[in-house]
């Protein structure tokens, strides 16, 4: 395993980018409905030092939200400029730079929404997420919170959740992380912010509703907060404005009709749109805009969902596990319930060379031994398995420079058949998540409800030739979605009112965040899948790794690499069984495309 903190050479950042580190504090978690309260931006020079700074509080004109987290009260924000007052100066500061942030999709989403409200476009064309960078490097930390990474890189935090101090801390973390990535020749996970797909028509941005679903509309009793409403056809009021009005009234505005839809708004129901036809088939009321105006005047209070306070700055990372902040020699590896630690538990093995079939077989045997197959030469790799032709791999000079133990297939065979640990294999013990084999199942700990399903593939193959999309389906007992909003993908990144959310964190990694507290009772299973756009197949992409991270760090990990001609693959399932949530590693592939996969699960692709 590589010591990540022994790089004492000159500080420098990769060429080809002008870097600016950004942090925002916000009034909540959703860019469409919450606001920026403070923003800090630090422009870095080629040597990684701060050359220019921009920092200010922002008066959002609304409730500042979780003051217990960010400390920004109404009094502190009184007199601060509005975002429209700083938009031009901030835009000029960011223009031409690649934005660096911790959970960059969050910060970028809030800034883009604020720039839109101010009447301009966001100048940010590229971003880099330091969460994705840390995961790609596989540094030895229990989680990837900003505070945890600060301790790892020995950067002092002065004021957590202060935008300026968080940006300062992150700039040091980024410089050291980027330096390590350069030494490993790992490409940085830079995302093109302007290349968002648009396969489906424009839709209403999904805003998670804080109220429980009260069911169908009784037109004689009126609307209740939490009711699910769908707009169909032309509207007198601009569609997005109408959606904002309904959201502000506490309604859950959806894009597609499902069995849980309370009412459909359509001014010309006789036109027979697909949504109206489905509503009539399901017995769902259809009202016109005039009647909707009358109903909106008297919306009854709903029942709030029970949620816990969420730390905005640490949205996707589990809380620190202090006892695991550094490797401990006598810390036993974690195992699946009822199993003994496996022979190679706690090791990450990089495989070089061999045919596709040989690589698949060897990764399977490595998993049998409890080790985790690594897709890249990272800081976490403990051993290298060399097959025929591996000596010519371009990574071998770096393997030798780091004095990593080199194993052969005979070493693996001897370990599987005779329980032998090769004498040249390092015996350091590391706490490690269980490595699941294909088809293996484990219970998700009941004490946790929030999970991040992180999907990644070989970074050195990432590029325009591989357009991989990670998706999720929230399935009822009949193995079909209840409605199209239960299909989470690039053009509908939030499903079931926030129960599942997709983020693209890098060029070869995407994340589905799952909050089991918000999963509807009708949902029996969440299926996580991946699809490739265009002619390439999973045989071209190679192995795909899946990490499931919870409150105590990674709860399970697995690598799926049996793909050949498949263009879509079911990666994992999170499902209910006897009152518990369980996780299954799947790896079932199909030769057809994403649209066919979606139809198989009941999505109305033509709707």
Structure, briefly:
The protein is α/β, with parallel strands linked by helices and 607 residues long. It is built from 15 helices and 26 strands.
Which helices and strands appear, and what pairs or packs with what?
Elements: E1 19-26, E2 36-44, E3 50-57, H1 67-70, H2 74-77, H3 83-94, E4 98-101, H4 104-117, E5 126-129, H5 130-137, H6 146-152, H7 163-184, E6 190-192, E7 228-231, H8 239-248, E8 252-254, E9 263-265, H9 274-282, E10 286-287, H10 289-296, E11 348-352, H11 356-368, E12 372-374, E13 383-386, H12 396-401, E14 406-407, H13 409-418, E15 441-443, E16 450-457, E17 467-475, E18 487-488, E19 494-495, E20 500-506, E21 509-515, E22 525-533, H14 538-541, E23 544-550, E24 553-560, E25 568-577, E26 580-590, H15 594-600
Parallel strand pairs: 1-4, 4-5, 7-8, 7-9, 9-10, 11-12, 11-13, 13-14
Antiparallel strand pairs: 1-2, 2-3, 5-6, 15-26, 16-21, 16-23, 17-18, 17-22, 19-20, 20-21, 22-25, 23-24, 25-26
Helix pairs in contact: 5-7, 11-13
């Amino acid at each position: 395993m590589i010591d990540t903190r022994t790089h004492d050479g000159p500080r420098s950042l990769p060429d080809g980018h002008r870097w600016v580190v950004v942090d925002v504090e916000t009034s909540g978690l959703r860019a469409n409905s919450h606001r920026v309260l403070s923003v800090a931006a630090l422009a870095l020079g080629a040597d990684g030092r701060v050359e220019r700074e921009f920092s200010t509080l922002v008066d959002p004109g609304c409730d500042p939200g979780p003051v217990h987290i960010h400390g920004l009260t109404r009094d502190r924000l009184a007199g601060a400029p509005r975002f429209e007052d700083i938009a031009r100066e901030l835009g000029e500061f960011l223009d031409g730079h690649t934005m660096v942030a911790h959970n960059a999709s969050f910060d970028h989403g809030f800034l883009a929404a604020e720039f839109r409200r101010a009447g301009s476009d966001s100048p940010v064309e590229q971003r880099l997420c330091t969460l994705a960078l840390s995961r790609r490097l596989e540094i030895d930390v229990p989680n990837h919170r900003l505070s945890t990474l600060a301790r790892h890189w020995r950067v002092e935090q002065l004021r957590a959740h202060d935008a300026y101090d968080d940006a300062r801390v992150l700039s040091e973390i980024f410089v050291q992380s980027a330096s390590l990535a350069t030494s490993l020749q790992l490409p940085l996970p830079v995302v093109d912010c302007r290349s968002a797909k648009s396969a489906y028509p424009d839709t209403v941005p999904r805003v998670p509703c804080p109220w429980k679903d009260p069911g169908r509309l009784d037109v004689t009793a009126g609307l209740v907060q939490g009711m699910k409403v769908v707009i169909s056809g032309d509207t007198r009021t601009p569609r997005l404005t109408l959606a904002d009005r309904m959201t502000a009234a506490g309604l859950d505005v959806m894009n597609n009709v499902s069995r849980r839809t309370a009412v459909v708004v359509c001014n010309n129901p006789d036109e027979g749109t697909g949504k109206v036809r489905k509503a009539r088939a399901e017995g769902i009321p259809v009202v016109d805009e005039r009647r909707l105006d009358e109903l909106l005047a008297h919306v009854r209070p709903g029942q709030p969902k029970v949620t816990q306070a969420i730390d905005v700055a640490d949205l996707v990372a589990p809380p620190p596990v202090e006892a695991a902040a550094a490797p401990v020699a006598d810390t036993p590896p974690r195992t699946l319930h009822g199993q003994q630690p496996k022979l190679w538990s706690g090791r990450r093995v990089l495989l070089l060379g061999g045919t596709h079939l040989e690589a698949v077989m060897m990764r399977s045997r490595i998993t049998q031994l409890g080790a985790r197959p690594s897709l890249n030469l990272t800081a976490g790799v403990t051993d290298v398995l060399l097959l025929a032709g591996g000596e010519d791999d371009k990574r071998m000079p770096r393997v030798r420079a780091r004095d990593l133990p080199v194993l052969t297939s005979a070493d693996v065979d001897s370990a599987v058949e005779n329980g032998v640990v090769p004498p040249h294999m390092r015996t350091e013990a590391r706490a490690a998540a269980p490595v699941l084999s294909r088809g293996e199942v484990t219970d998700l700990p009941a004490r946790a409800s929030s999970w991040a399903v992180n999907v990644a593939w070989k970074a050195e193959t990432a590029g325009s030739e591989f357009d991989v999309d990670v998706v999720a389906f929230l399935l009822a007992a009949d193995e079909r979605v209840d409605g199209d909003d239960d299909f989470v993908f690039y053009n509908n990144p939030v499903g079931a009112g926030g129960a599942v959310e997709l983020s693209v964190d890098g060029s070869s990694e995407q994340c589905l965040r799952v909050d089991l507290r918000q999963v509807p009772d009708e949902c029996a299973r969440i299926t996580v899948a991946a699809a490739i756009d265009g002619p390439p197949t999973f045989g071209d992409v190679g192995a795909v790794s899946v990490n499931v991270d919870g409150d105590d760090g990674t709860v399970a990990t697995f690598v799926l690499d049996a793909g050949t001609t498949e263009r879509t693959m079911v990666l994992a399932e999170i499902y209910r069984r006897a009152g518990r949530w369980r996780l299954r590693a799947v790896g079932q592939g199909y030769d057809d495309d994403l649209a066919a996969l979606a139809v198989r699960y009941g999505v109305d692709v033509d709707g």
